[in-house]
Design goal:
The structure holds two protein chains of two kinds. By secondary structure, chain A is mainly beta. Chain A is about 0% helix and about 55% strand. In chain A, strands 2, 4, 5, 9, 10 and 11 form a six-stranded mixed beta sheet that branches. Chain A has a five-stranded antiparallel beta sheet with strand order 1-3-8-7-6, with no helix packed on it. In chain B, the strands form two sheets. In chain B, strands 2, 4, 5, 6, 9, 10 and 11 form a seven-stranded mixed beta sheet that branches. A four-stranded antiparallel beta sheet of chain B has the order 1-3-8-7, with no helix packed on it. In chain B, a hairpin with a 5-residue loop joins strand 4 (about 30-40) and strand 5. By secondary structure, chain B is an all-beta fold.
């Protein structure tokens, strides 16, 4: 089955700096890669996603890149703000299945 | 966006009792729902896929007799933790897909004493 590895497990940056979180996946049949932000005790919230027919996607300060050959994808957050502090999860799935396999999570801390 | 609601949001029970958690899609029909478990400071682990009108599909290592899933209607899936023990204490979250996006319930925090 699919296995998703996520790094780093914790990340601390200064406000205004960029943050990068990386994930690798094992199943070459996976074709949908969402990123979620989860605050303590809350449900995960989708922040951006990418499908395998696209190499990069951007939404304001957030971007995701995908390298299908290497089976890895990354989340980039620019101009970080304290409210970006949360746990971020990457995930992978086969679109038609719908079920997500999550990475281990990255606890991002943005210091003012 | 679509709304998925879980109930209860938190529950405390004694060891050996059974607990039922409900997952509802409020404004759309969901033939498939997914159940996840999340231990503190850990990731979401897929437990099972709930299929309306048929048996759930469990992930490897998940005890189907312990975690009973019923998806009797297009808007409701239930997870029953049978004979709960302290190690079953966790955050249980359901999700359902609508127009291609997965929406999560609020989660249910189970504490087994």
């Amino acid at each position: 089955g699919e296995n998703v590895e996520q790094h780093p497990s914790t990340l601390s940056v200064q406000e205004g700096d960029s943050a990068v979180i990386k994930c690798t996946y094992s199943d070459s049949a996976s074709n949908y890669f969402p990123w979620y932000k989860q605050e303590l005790g809350k449900r995960p919230q989708l922040i951006i996603d990418i499908r395998s027919n696209v190499g990069e996607k951007k939404d304001q300060r957030i971007a995701v890149t995908l390298n299908k050959t290497a089976k890895h994808f990354s989340l980039h957050i620019t101009e970080t703000q304290p409210e970006d502090s949360a746990v971020y999860f990457c995930a992978a799935s086969k679109w038609w299945e719908g079920k997500l396999i999550f990475g281990q999570g990255t606890e991002l801390s943005v210091k003012p | 966006g679509a709304v998925v609601s879980q109930h209860p949001s938190w529950v405390i029970c004694k060891s050996g009792t059974s607990v039922k958690i409900e997952c509802r899609s409020l404004d759309f029909q969901a033939t498939t729902m997914f159940w996840y478990r999340q231990f503190p400071k850990q990731s979401l682990m897929l437990m099972a896929t709930s299929n309306e009108g048929s048996k759930a599909t469990y992930e490897q290592g998940v005890e189907k007799d312990k975690f009973l899933i019923n998806h009797a209607s297009l808007t409701l899936s239930t997870l029953t933790v049978t004979s709960a023990h302290p190690e079953d204490s966790s955050f249980y979250i359901c999700s359902a897909r609508f127009t291609g996006e997965l929406f999560f319930g609020e989660g249910s925090r189970l504490t087994v004493l």
